[in-house]
Amino acid sequence: MGMRKQAIVWAAVLAMLVSGPGGAASETSDQKILTTGIHPITDKNTPRAREKAVADALEQAVAHAFVQVVSPRVFAANLEFLHTRILPAAETYITTFRVLGEATHKNDYLVGVESRVHSGLLAQTLAKAGILNGDADRPRILLLIAEQTASDLLPKYWWGNHPDPYHSHAEIQIADRMTQNRFKVVESGGERPDPMAYDIQFKSIYDTRAAVDLARELNADLVVLGRVGATESSNRMGDEQIFEADIHLDALDVTTGESVARCEHQVAAKTDADRPGDIQAIVRAAEAAAADLSTRIDKVWSQKQRKETSFDVYIQGDRFLPRFIALKKGFAEIREIENVQPREIGSDQAVLEMVYKGRPEQFAHRIMLKTFDGFGVEIVELTDSRVTIRFIDDTSIRDIDDSVPFGADNEKTPE
Fold first, then answer.
1. Whole-model pTM?
2. Which residues contact 32 (CB under 8 A, 6 or more apart)?
3. Is the model's pLDDT at 352 over the cut of 70?
């Protein structure tokens, strides 16, 4: 990775740390982002250095938007995609930008740029690449797993009464496996939410009602409530101690509060060069439980996803009628649509009644994956009863101050 691209990726990492997991910006609206750019002046070619510095600033803006669209784990797993597919085409995702300030320092040209990045188009690119496909078909999961090592007197946990901050080896292992299987794990790592902030009080560590209430507040579909603990075994391997870990997990549906999947595993391990034996046993038990639970949840959830739901689809945007006709043709290619009836059709908007085999979120993702001739779509509202679609142009208009095309030198270069 080149030094400049490496700096851009690190800038994206910094943006993630400042903004927090998941980001705060909408995935369907333009984001206004401030970045700096730098490029060395070679052969006294200041205009060329300025152009490259502006391009550098715009790439940083797109990298910042990328971390707002995806989760931290998806970001970490797709650095190569960001470097090879997104950043080389950064101008595709820039709606408008303008240079706020510029200067020279030693032999470098510096710029400060205000950009507007089309996050919806960026999300659509990621969906087409298969990076975001899992979000609609997999549940959002909250992990509440108490952990007790061989040296702990009591289990440690981050929720409930008198929580004890800790590094949960089991949760990290389970979250990683779930993420690899395209489940979305919420509130994993970092600062934990306080249940009392939602007026939720746990009567015990394993209070299922409170766990479901907290998961609901955090917009999760399932909560995995469980415990894992390691103790020294009476068995030995030569002179080495053996540790046994037991793990019990129960996945609860936030909608009904009922258990949808359970698993129990027991694993033995000895100390190795990387981990003490009790930690090694906990990690192995968590890995086995995560694989088992993923399979069980996937089976149950896929059956739930096929259930029919009814919701309204609102459609709006410029050049409405020809684009609406093209969108309706696109509906015909989606097998999960059972029935669609117009409720209201005008010259610039329409309302349809949709019967769909799956959730509104799944329908929205299917639409985002489709391509249309001369225009695109973005989802501007998504609830259990409503999906709002807006038509957008597939070629964004870019300007610097007086609408000079991307990469052009629009202002007088300082001598």
1. 0.50
2. 114, 115, 116
3. yes
